[in-house]
């Protein structure tokens, strides 16, 4: 995860009722020129650079010293930031009819599209929308499932979903959490009406069309592109689905898991059935032990938290990237303090948009965390690469690129890499890789259709294709169509199951996660080819490849200054995304799944 206070900050709300008092305010009566636009952009950039730094520092302090005071300070500067970006977005819209240079037009669009939920230009409606958003956020955050005097938080339920193999207990927890979402329904319906009104005032057909307009192509073309990419991955997903359903049928009985129907959603180890890695023990291949355990190897070689971070940094310097600044080590959080509360969720930061790079993690000495550190440093090196760009472009090429870069680097944490850095004595035979590939596919391949359908549902809600009377029915139709997952019990329009997923009431666009899962394999394949890899793609590590590092850095330095298609082409040579890299990566697993699925009825 990358933590940054750039133009992509949270769910900002447009309201033209804010006082336009800054020196760069454009008179409504004056005919504007390109020079006015450049003056406005230059002044806005200065304002944003200052606000970015202050908002980032306030957020960092709050995340590392959680008190009522630091929460208040962070909220204050965030409100100021939001107000300013709202004002600037409205000002940018006044240049819509002006013919600008390509660069100036792109900067203006970045300002306008920084907004996630545009409110109507009406004080009363804007206030109403703000209240709805706060109430939805509170409903989710405070949500609990209580039976008698015993209440479970979402964290408690998530842990039980991961570990329990009791059908009825899993069903109870699954149903319990979805009680939290029911009261959200009328609020969400009203929110859709209000934000659509705001989007239309900004010149977009609806809020979904506005979200899709951030991807350097016509909104409807982008939706078609996502379906094309999904079509490439679907055969692999279908094979994985068939195998997992068969194994769940063996575990729970085919009366509970019929072999010709979608899988009941509560049996996949995850509250939303979005990743399935927690049920690896149910579906694991025989003799799947790879012959080593990274957690044990780290302990054997006396790796502490700092050694793990420095080891991950060495990955990047081996590719030709400059070392991290000393301040990275003196200012980052690597271990959980004993004397205070902190946010332990791993995140990467650049506080001054220059070289004040940091990560915030409560590192555990495990193999999984070692990969996570590589992932977070991927964000940091991306942040530093684009820090010479104007503030408008100090972000990834599109919102899927940042997460993809971190994951791309983590894909190079292979047995061969572990041997090269001295953690592993011998690389196991390739026949041992099926278990590793299965575990990865349960998380990464299983997620892809879910990553697609969340916004498919929202876009159809925003454009009216899904009416409020069909919210829940349409949700489950998409779950069945894309994932082959079904509700384990009857659901009605009294339910609001989309609201049980944070990103829906939290209004966080979700397509970025779908894109990241596609792009990371495409990036990995391209880097491996540049590095001269001759072996299996899933065994490739680009450690020590200066050529791969140079090409990667060329893309990273661009930030979002050019359309993402151009950034993609600098690394892969093509301007169109291609999901066949995933099929290449999991080719040995596909062969295994084909053998296992012989005689089984696949599909739903």
Automatic annotation (TrEMBL):
One GO cellular component this record assigns the protein to is:
membrane
Q: Where does chloride bind?
A: 215, 512
Q: Which Pfam families match?
A: Peptidase_M2 (PF01401)
- For the keyword Manganese, the answer is no
Which residues carry attached sugars according to the database record?
149
Q: Name its GO BP terms in alphabetical order.
A: proteolysis
What InterPro entries does the record point to? Peptidase_M2 (IPR001548)
Sequence positions that bind Zn(2+) 2: 375, 379, 403
- Any one GO molecular function term: metallopeptidase activity
The residues that the entry says bind Zn(2+) 1 are: 375, 379, 403
Q: Does the keyword S-adenosyl-L-methionine apply?
A: no
Q: Which residues form the signal peptide?
A: 1-22
Q: Which UniProt keywords apply?
A: Disulfide bond, Glycoprotein, Metal-binding, Signal, Zinc
Q: Which cysteines are joined by disulfide bonds?
A: 146-151, 344-362, 528-540
The positions flagged as active site in the entry are 376, 503
Annotated protein name in UniProt: Zinc metallopeptidase
Taxonomic source organism: Pseudoalteromonas phenolica
Q: What is the lineage of its organism?
A: Bacteria, Pseudomonadati, Pseudomonadota, Gammaproteobacteria, Alteromonadales
């Amino acid at each position: 995860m990358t933590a940054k206070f750039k133009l992509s900050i949270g769910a900002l709300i447009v309201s033209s009722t804010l006082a336009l008092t800054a020196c760069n305010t454009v008179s409504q009566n004056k005919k504007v020129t390109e020079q006015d636009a450049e003056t406005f952009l230059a002044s806005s950039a200065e304002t944003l650079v200052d606000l970015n730094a202050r908002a980032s520092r306030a957020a960092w302090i709050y995340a590392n010293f959680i008190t009522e005071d630091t929460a208040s300070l962070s909220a204050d500067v965030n409100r100021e930031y939001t107000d300013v970006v709202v004002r600037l977005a409205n000002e940018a819209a006044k240049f819509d009819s002006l013919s600008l240079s390509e660069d100036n037009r792109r900067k203006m669009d970045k300002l306008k599209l920084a907004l996630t939920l545009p409110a109507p230009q009406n004080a009363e409606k804007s206030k109403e929308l703000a209240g709805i958003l706060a109430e939805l956020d509170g409903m989710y955050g405070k949500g609990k499932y209580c039976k008698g005097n015993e209440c479970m938080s979402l964290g408690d339920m998530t842990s039980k979903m991961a570990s329990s193999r009791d059908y009825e207990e899993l069903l109870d927890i699954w149903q319990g959490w979805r009680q939290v979402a029911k009261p959200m329904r009328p609020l969400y319906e009203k929110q859709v009406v209000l934000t659509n009104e705001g989007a239309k005032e900004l010149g977009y057909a609806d809020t979904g069309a506005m979200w899709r307009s951030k991807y350097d192509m016509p909104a409807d073309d982008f939706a078609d592109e996502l379906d094309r990419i999904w079509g490439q991955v679907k055969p692999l997903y279908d094979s994985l689905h068939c195998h997992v359903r068969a194994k769940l049928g063996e575990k729970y009985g085919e009366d509970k898991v019929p072999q010709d129907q979608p899988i009941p959603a509560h049996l996949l180890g995850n509250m939303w059935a979005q990743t399935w890695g927690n049920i690896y023990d149910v579906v694991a291949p025989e003799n799947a032990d790879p012959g080593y355990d990274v957690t044990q190897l780290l302990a054997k070689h006396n790796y502490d938290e700092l050694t793990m971070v420095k080891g991950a940094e060495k990955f990047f310097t081996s590719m030709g990237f400059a070392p991290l600044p000393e301040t990275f080590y003196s200012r980052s959080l690597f271990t959980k303090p004993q004397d205070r509360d902190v946010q332990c969720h791993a995140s990467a930061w650049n506080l001054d948009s220059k070289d004040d790079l940091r990560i915030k993690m409560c590192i555990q000495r495990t193999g999984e965390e070692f990969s996570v550190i590589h992932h977070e440093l991927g964000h940091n090196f991306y942040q530093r690469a684009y820090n010479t760009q104007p503030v408008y472009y100090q972000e990834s090429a599109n919102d899927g690129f940042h997460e993809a870069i971190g994951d791309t680097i983590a894909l190079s944490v292979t047995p061969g890499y572990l041997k090269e850095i001295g953690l592993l004595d011998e690389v196991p035979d390739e026949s041992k890789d099926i278990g590793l590939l299965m575990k990865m596919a349960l998380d990464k391949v299983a997620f892809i259709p879910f990553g697609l359908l969340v916004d498919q549902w929202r876009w159809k809600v925003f454009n009216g294709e899904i009416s409020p009377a069909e919210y829940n029915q349409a949700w489950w139709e998409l779950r069945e169509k894309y994932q082959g997952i079904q509700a384990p019990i009857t659901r009605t329009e009294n339910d609001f199951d989309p609201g049980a997923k944070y990103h829906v009431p939290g209004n966080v666009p979700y397509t970025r996660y779908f894109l990241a899962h596609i792009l990371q394999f495409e990036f990995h394949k391209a880097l491996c080819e540049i590095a001269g890899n001759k072996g299996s793609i899933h065994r490739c590590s680009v450690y020590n490849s200066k050529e791969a590092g140079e090409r990667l850095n060329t893309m990273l330095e661009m930030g979002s200054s050019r359309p993402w298609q151009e950034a993609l082409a600098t690394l892969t040579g093509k301007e169109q995304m291609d999901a066949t890299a995933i099929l290449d990566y999991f080719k040995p697993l596909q062969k295994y799944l084909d053998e296992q699925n012989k005689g089984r009825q696949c599909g739903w």
